[in-house]
Amino acid sequence: MDGGELALRIQRFDPSLEKGPHMELYTIPLKEGMTVLDALLYAKDSLDHGIALRFSCRMASCGSCGMKINGRPRLACETQVADLGPRAITVQPMDNFPIVRDLVVDLESFFEKHAGISPGILRKEDPREQESPSGEYLMTPQELDSIVQFTYCIKCGLCSSSCPTSSTDASFPGPQALAQEYRFLKDVRDEGGKERLDLVDTDHGVWRCHFAGTCSAVCPKGVDPALGIQLLKRHVMAARSPMRRKSKGRSGAKVFPNPNKDLLKQP
Ligand code: FES
Q1: How far apart are CA 187 and CA 96, in angstroms?
Q2: Are 121 and 93 found together in one domain?
Q3: Which domain holds residue 86?
Q4: How many domains does the chain have?
Q5: Which atom of ligand 1 is nearest the CA belonging to 61?
Q6: Does residue 151 share a domain with residue 112?
Q7: 150 CB contacts (<8 Å, ≥6 apart)?
Q8: 90 CA to middle of ligand 1, Å?
Q9: Do 64 and 133 belong to one domain?
Q10: How many whole angstroms from 158 Cα to the centroid of ligand 1?
């Protein structure tokens, strides 16, 4: 691929100075193995220092470089230029988020929604048990299997940027937060139960999802948020039914003595 040129169209917009976005065209010398992030960094380093973009790990891990590439939400650092066909690429900021500048969007509401579903193990025991554990909370490989795909979420925001409900309802938690709610609900170490279901069984909660499935289609880590949301709906319905509630108990994770207990006590 070395030797050719790429026509890179970047959406530029500074809301503090301009009324609306415009496109600018940059010509990038192609290199073997070039990613869209590489092309953007060439443009920023060599052609226009003013281009604003966000990135960090360059290995599809931190979730910083989400953007729309040729109309589809993707991570710029894992998208190969060679995989996009003709040597012309258009990059735009993710939809459903306010633009800070150029390709950088404001993810504050996204992270607030994530924080809103209590993204951590909830236990009813003495809080001192979590600060100074006396044992390990074990789960079987099968129990892990039932939630492991959801733990791969890197919070890049691509799923929420593609979600038609998120684009019309600012109070909808979005596929990322709802899938994480399911992940913690199904974690056998978690005791949130009804508390978690009440959080999403609202007018703007889980029922707003129409199962468009775009969230799952664009996830760069193979997570299936649409599936998690449908399963979450099933748990909400089961919790609403008095008969199901009576017959269903929660086994919970077993507590086993921690072999490193004495080590933990050392200063
Ligand atoms: Fe970290 Fe792309 S730079 S995911």
Answers
A1: 30
A2: no
A3: 5-105
A4: 2
A5: 4
A6: yes
A7: 179, 180, 182, 183, 223, 225, 228
A8: 18
A9: no
A10: 12
pLDDT in tens, the chain (267 residues): 667 999 999 999 999 999 999 999 999 999 999 999 999 999 999 999 999 999 999 999 999 999 999 999 999 999 999 999 888 999 999 999 999 999 999 999 999 999 999 999 898 877 788 788 888 889 999 999 999 999 999 999 999 999 999 999 999 999 999 999 999 999 999 999 999 999 999 999 999 999 999 999 999 999 999 999 999 999 999 998 766 555 444 444 555 554 444 544 443
Give the CATH number, domain containing residue 166: 1.10.1060.10
What is the Å distance from ligand 1's center to 131 Cα? 33
Contact 21, 105 (CB under 8 A): no
Verify whether ligand 1 is closer than 6 Å to residue 39 (CB atom).
Answer: no
For residues 95 and 201, membership in a common domain is answered with: no
Residue 41 beta carbon below 6 angstroms from any ligand 1 atom: no
